[in-house]
Amino acid sequence: MPTTSDFLQYSLWSGIATLIFAATTVLSFILQWGFRFRLVGSTGFMVVLTVGLFTLSLVPLSRTVVPGAVRYSLIYDNGATQAVITTPPQISPSQLEATLRQAASDLYSYGRLGTTGENELTIRVRTLIHPEPGISVPLYLGQVKRSLATREDPQMTVEIYRDKFAQLPKPTPKKVRS
Q: pTM for the complete prediction?
């Protein structure tokens, strides 16, 4: 992942390219080149690109990594107070707790709106089990509730439905060839 110093370097090179485009544009107007108005657009784009890269060099890009979390997929998000993620069925309760904390950190956004008076984001986690061939059943394993207002939420609550883990398929041992 690029760091802020990388973006500063990118903005420097983009700024140099922008100055070259601007000089070429001025030269094209002096010499009455036919494509001079296209150069105006290209120069404008380079200015926007340079400003964007410079802005990324000012704002630190950071992502919290929770140890023990497994990969998850976001399958539903209403953009306000509810989200659902899915995990593989081979997950332990400790991995599930870490994954819920990771999802709570990843899905936090200042742009989420509390609807109907709710001021917390609820993220539920599910997995799919197959009790019979051709039948898939969603199994909810837990949820986390966190504040919509603060990034570091000390009141975040994690619930794990331990009774649901009995319904998960047991891993099959691999046969060792000799």
A: 0.62
